[in-house]
Amino acid sequence: MKNGNELFRDKVCVVTGAGSGIGLGITRQLLLRGATVYMVGRTEKKILAAGESLTEFGDKVHAEQLNVTDDDAFRSFIARVEKTHPVDYIFNNAGVGWGGFFATESIDNIRKVIDANLYGVIHGIQAVLPYMLKRESGHIVNIASLAAIVPLPLQSVYVASKCAVRGLTECLRYELAPFNIKVTVVCPAEVATEIFGDPKNIPPGAISIDQAGIEILDGIEQGKIVLPIVDTARRIYRDTKENPEANEQFLLQMFNHTLTGGGMTVKQFHDRVIEQIG
Ligand SMILES: NC(=O)c1ccc[n+]([C@@H]2O[C@H](COP(=O)([O-])OP(=O)(O)OC[C@H]3O[C@@H](n4cnc5c(N)ncnc54)[C@H](OP(=O)(O)O)[C@@H]3O)[C@@H](O)[C@H]2O)c1
Questions:
Q1: Cα 190 to middle of ligand 1, angstroms
Q2: What's the mean pLDDT in 56-76?
Q3: pTM (global) more than 0.85
C-alpha cells in the first residue's frame, strides 16, 4: 500500500459539495497531495469562488456547478470528465443537515433530505461505476456521519439518510471487490462548517475542515472501510462494540440536552407534539 503523500499523487478525484466545509477541506488536502480535483457544488457562485481560492494549484483544479440530486446532470458531468481524465476517486460528500420532530415533519422536507443525502450518493456511484468496472480500478468514498454509527436523537431523518449511505457502502464492498474497486464510508463527528447554520452553534470540540480533510485522506491511506473521524466518533464507534451502555447514556443525555437547549422539558415536548398533530 502506498503511504504518505503518494496514494493520491496524479490521481483524478471528484468531490461533491466542495464549495464549503468538509468537501473543501478534502479538496485542499487532495491538491496538496498531488491529485487533480474536479470540485462540484450546488450554488454556482459559491463553487466558482471556492475554485478561485485554489488557483495556486493551476490546472489541477476544476470547479463547476452540479446539483447531485440531478441524476442526468451527474452522469453527463462524469461522462465529460472521463473523456480526458479517468476518475480514480469519487468523494460523495454533498449533504444537508436536519433536526426536529419526526412525527410533525412534512413529507416534502423529509424527501429533500433523502434526495440530497442518499440519492445524491446513489447518483454519484452509478455515474462512475460503468467506467470503474471496465477499468477494474477505482475508489468510492461516501461521507456519512456519526449518525450512521449511533441513532442521534431528534435527527431521525438525517440518521435514516446516513445509515442508508453506510449500509449501501458496506454492501458494495463485497459486490465491487471482484472488480478491484474499493469503498470507504466516512463517519465524522463535529467539524466546524456551515451545516450548523449560525457559527455560534458549532460545538466547542469541532475540528477544522483542513483537519477533517487530513483525517479522511490518512484513514483512506490506512485502508479503513468504516472511517470514524474526530475523537468523539472514534470513541463512540469503539463503544458500539466494547461499551454499548456508555453510548446509551450518551444518547439519552443528548436527547435531554437538545430539548433543554431549545428551552423545552420532555413533558413540554410531549405536549407540543400532541398539540401539533391535533
Ligand atoms: N460538519 C459536521 O460536523 C458533519 C458531521 C457529520 C457528517 N457531515 C457530513 O459532511 C458532509 C459535508 O457537510 P459540511 O459539514 O461540510 O457542511 P457544508 O459546509 O454545508 O457543506 C455541504 C456542501 O454540500 C453542498 N450541497 C448540499 N446539497 C447539495 C446538492 N443537492 N448538490 C450539490 N451540492 C450540495 C452545499 O452546497 P450549497 O451551499 O451550494 O448548497 C455545501 O457546499 C455532509 O454530507 C454532512 O452530512 C458533517
A1: 13
A2: 98
A3: yes
